[in-house]
Amino acid sequence: SLGEEVLLKTCVRRAPFVWLPNAWCGNPLKQLRAGSDALRPPWPALVITCGRRSAPFGPAIARASLERLNKAAGWALELGAIRAVVHLGYSADTHRDLGEFCGRLAAGFAPLAQRLHQGGCLMVVENTFEPGPDVLLAAREAIIQAGGPEVGFCLDVGHAYCFSATTLPDWWQALGPYLGELHLHDNDGTFDYHHPPGCGMVDWDFVARSLAALEHPPLLTMEPHAEPDLWAFLRGLEKVWGTPPA
Fold this sequence. Notes:
The protein is an alpha/beta fold. It contains eight helices and seven strands; from the N terminus they run αββαβαβαβααβαβα.
C-alpha cells in the first residue's frame, strides 16, 4: 500500500524467544541485489523476514505498487475509461497519524491522478475499511496539495453499511459534493457479502432519493461477485427502484 509505513512486521525482543537475533540481521541488506534501499541503525519497527534473512522491503513494495498502478492507468486510458477507482489501504489500527498517512499516499497518487486527468479520466477514491468520511476527505485534500488535480469519490453503499459505524446519510452528506461513482450491493451488516439490492439492510429508498437530488448523477456500478448473479442484481434493482424508464 502506498500509504503504509516502510515496514511490514513488528520486531519485538521477548524472552525466552528472541525475535530476529543479531546474527540474522546485523546487516539485512548486505546480500540483497543492487538498488535496494539502504538501512542503518536505528532499525525500523517493521520488516519482512524470509528464512534467516530480513529486510525492510517497504520502499520496494511502494515502488512496485506505483508501477502496477501506472500500468493500470495506461490500460484505463487506452480503453477510454472515464473513472478510475482507487482504494486507500487505510487501517485505523495501523495508521495512527492520518496526516503522515495522507502525505505518503499523496506523493504517489498525485502524479497518477494527474496522468488520468490529462487523459480524460477522473480518479475517484472508494470507501473500504475507513471508519468515516474524514479519512477520504483528508486524502483528497492531500492529493490536491501535492499538485494533483481535483479527485472525486466512489461511495460503496455496501462497505459503508458493514465496515463503518457512520450512517449512510452521513457518508452521503460528506462525499456527495464530489461523488463520481456509486457501487451498488447489499449485506446484513455482518460481512461484505455483495448480495443483490434488497437482500440486505441497505436503505435503498434513501439512495434513490439522494441520487435524484444530485445535479450531476454519478456512474452507477453493480458489483455482483459472479456472472450469474448479475441477473439477480438487475431483478433486485427493479424490486427496490422499480422498472427504469425506457
